[in-house]
Amino acid sequence: xxxxxxxxxxxxxxxxxxxxxxxxxxxxxxxxxxxxxxxxxxxxxxxxxxxxxxxxxxxxxxxxxxxxxxxxxxxxxxxxxxxxxxxxxxxxxxxxxxxxxxxxxxxxxxxxxxxxxxxxxxxxxxxxxxxxxxxxxxxxxxxxxxxxxxxxxxxxxxxxxxxxxxxxxxxxxxxxxxxxxxxxxxxxxxxxxxxxxxxxxxxxxxxxxxxxxxxxxxxxxxxxxxxxxxxxxxxxxxxxxxxxxxxxxxxxxxxxxxx
Length: 259
Known about the structure:
The protein is of the alpha/beta class.
């Protein structure tokens, strides 16, 4: 098991100044906000005109200013944008869960999530493949997928997605053969820890400070919940808050493996 210092290096790219990294980058003159870009994408173009292409973010942290901010603004609105929202509906059925390792909210590990895949990736995604980054303060997808897995993604600003996770504790006791976990994006570990303790979440809660995991999982709705068989093959991904019976039925459907 790697020591804490090694895991910190593996969880994400090194930062020269963590305090400065917590600040959102200033908007350049004439630069559009995330909400303005979404509105522009959804508007119909003038006859004979060409729809402008959206600006590309320069890095993982810039993604949080764009896609994570859009999450907080639109929540379920992506369902009202046919075709354009298709890429933001989570991991589809039949695909394998992407691998990641992220700080545990109730641990003392700091840093950004490691999203480097076994089959490739760059140093910016992590110093080594995410599956190799393990420890008591790390939420590792490769460990979670050893059993059937219910994995939910939320942001907290401008949303009310936390009740989805409140249902997990009782259901985890009812279905001990299924793993339940969550990813909270856009907050510091301390803030996610406070939230988890206040709401008494006793399942693994991963901290996705810079939005890398949400980006990897193509999340555009809060909450997004993925149900996967043991081994990591996705059965289905559901958008929006699920009623307890719907959540229970979907969790039971992965309990015994694919049929």
